[in-house]
Amino acid sequence: MSVTGKTAIITGSNSGIGLGIAEELAKAGANVVLNSFTDNDEDHALAARIGKDHGIEARYIKADMSKPDECRALVEQAGACDILVNNAGIQHVAGIEEFPMEKWDAIIAINMSSAFHTTAAALPVMRKSGWGRVINVASAHGLRASPFKSAYVAAKHGVVGLTKVTALETAQEPITANAICPGYVLTPLVEAQIPDTMKEYDMSREDVIKNVMLTRQPSKEFATVEQLGGTALYLCSDAAAQVTGTTISVDGGWTAM
Ligand code: NAD
Question: In the chain, which residues fall in CATH 3.40.50.720?
Fold first, then answer.
């Protein structure tokens, strides 16, 4: 089964890992729907560029993944959904006592609940077309914890649980649901954590990268967005038809420890 002509919706895909996955799926012939909460000319220009580069249909649809109605409307507006990649995510780093309540709510909504809403809207579409792939971008933090990341770790563990339930509810259909668990990937999300982590640990930027981030990653290398795109493509392949309800770590050995 090739992804040629399939439609992939990738949430949070005007940057970082989501954009990397969109590029790999487009390169393999899928039509892609890009998404974020903004509606800038650059967002639409990005979709146009990807469409042109890979000779596929690419669209940008604005939808705020912190809002349940907009999550569901994204799938409706796309009109088709063979591959759903739940990728949108944010981070905030603080101890539990200082963790701002609104940040907790936003992280739970965007990083976890959005995947429930888009999946609920996408499953009927996949059942109708007779094929589907749900790919949730969780994290090594869906399998392991770190201090100062309570909301993120809780949300990502929740996404792994949701992935298993989605897989069980679709187990006898040509639909699979899996979670990709990246270790550290140098995207804008990770860049943004560096100053706060420098403060929490009283360290330089170089020390945070080497001694906080990559200290958990035995390979001592960041994973790349292209590698994550390749993993998503594998999950769409025939070889992965019986791979469901599981996690695939792309973390340089982090969760082997
Ligand atoms: P990023 O900041 O580059 O991308 C996040 C994307 O989500 C952006 O496109 C952003 O516009 C979008 N987004 C944010 N809030 C949104 C909202 N309310 N509605 C719609 N879209 C929204 O970050 P990234 O590192 O590419 O992260 C992508 C995913 O990968 C996240 O779920 C993140 O938790 C996960 N992840 C990242 C790493 C890493 O090291 N970078 C590791 C493990 C997991």
Answer: 7-184+223-256
The Cα–Cα gap between 220 and 85 comes to 27
pLDDT, tens digit, for every residue of 225-244? Answer: 999 999 999 999 999 999 99
| Domain 7-184+223-256 is found in CATH 3.40.50.720 | yes
Q: 118: closest CA among 153, 72, 159?
A: 72
Ligand 1 centroid to residue 172 C-alpha, Å: 31
| Partner residues linked to 149 by β-bridges | 94
Condensed to tens digits (0 to 9), the pLDDT of residues 5-28 reads 999 999 999 999 999 999 999 999
How far CA 182 is from CA of 11, 107, 233, 255, in Å, comes to 16, 18, 15, 10
What residue ranges line ligand 1, CB within 6 angstroms?
11-18, 35-37, 64-66, 87-90, 110-111, 137, 139, 182, 184-185, 187-190
